[in-house]
Amino acid sequence: MSALKLQGKAILVTGSSQGIGEAVALRLAEEGADIVVNYHSHPEGADHVVQQIQASGRKSVAIRADLGLVPEVQRLVQESVRALGRLDILVNNAGVEKNADFWSVTEADYDLVMNVNLKGVFFVTQAFVRHLMERKRGGKVINMSSVHEELPFPHFAPYCMSKGGVKMMTRDLAIELAPFGITVNSIAPGAIETPINSKLLHDPAKLNALLDNIPLRRLGQPGDVAGVAAFLASSDADYLTGTTLFADGGLLWNYSEQ
Ligand code: BGC
Predict the structure, then answer these.
(1) How much distance in Å is there from the Cα of 190 to the middle of ligand 1?
(2) Is the dihedral of CA 24, 30, 36, 42 positive or negative?
(3) What is the pTM of this model?
């Protein structure tokens, strides 16, 4: 049997009760890691993920937190460390989006998207990095960005702005944290079949228009993204930092005239 890539690693995956985060948590556990499953609104989903991981012989706990609140993210990291003994890797996966015309965006929706997708990522990472510094250990940060860190997405302005912020956070922290042996990379998924996309999945006209934009002619599956996360979490990616890997079936750079 080949050695597991993440044997004995302790990993926190935010937003892992469903969607891409769930697939990432399960895949990292398959590679041998112990996992903290963080959730906000779906305790039953989180428990289900935890049970599957425990059944495979790894440690796992579910911890609820509102990632938009700094004391909550600090508690999340503290409780994760208590549960697993330490943390080696952080996957900043949790994210939300709101569809609205620019001129109708409410302050509440703007704050929700920015707080979870950008401020939350910043302060979870800060708490994780402080933990690594206390223990004098290196580690890895993996951010779930989006093709929309590059690509405009009309009617989703705050979402795109948050992902643009994650892109620059990835680059900036990669440089600042390199001397501490901490790498920071992002994954930019395209259109993946998850609950965040449920409206689109049930609208055949919109779905077909989207498929026309994807050179590989299919939506991505959460597992397509989880495989990239497993690579970035492994020692195979030790020399990568400040980079975004696109998992989008070619969506971002698609252009043709026919
Ligand atoms: C968004 C989806 C969108 C996809 C492709 C993702 O970041 O969350 O709503 O369908 O990008 O545009």
Answers:
(1) 6
(2) positive
(3) 0.97
Helices 70-84 and 120-135: crossing angle, nearest 10°? Answer: 40
Q: What domains are there in the chain, each with its CATH number?
A: 10-247 (3.40.50.720)
Where in the chain does DSSP place strands (E)?
A: 10-13, 34-39, 60-64, 89-92, 139-144, 182-189, 244-247
Closest atom of ligand 1 relative to the 248 alpha carbon: 5
Instruction: Give, using CA atoms, the residue closest to atom 7 of ligand 1.
Output: 146
In 10 A of CB 118, how many CB atoms?
20
pLDDT at 132: 98
Residue closest via CA to ligand 1's atom 9 equals 197
The rounded radius of gyration (Å) of the Cα atoms in the chain is 18
Residue ID of nearest Cα to ligand 1 atom 3:
191
HEC letters along 32-58? CCEEEEEECCCHHHHHHHHHHHHHCCC
pLDDT digit string, tens, across residues 197-241? 888 999 999 999 999 999 999 999 999 999 999 999 999 999 999
Query: In a mutational test of the pocket of ligand 1, which residue from 147, 161, 251 has the highest number of ligand atoms less than 8 Å from its CB?
Result: 147
Asked if the model's pLDDT at residue 258 lies above 80, the reply is: no
Q: How confident is the model at residue 29 (pLDDT cuts 50, 70, 90)?
A: very high
Taking a C-beta distance cutoff of 8 angstroms, is the pair 241, 171 a contact?
no
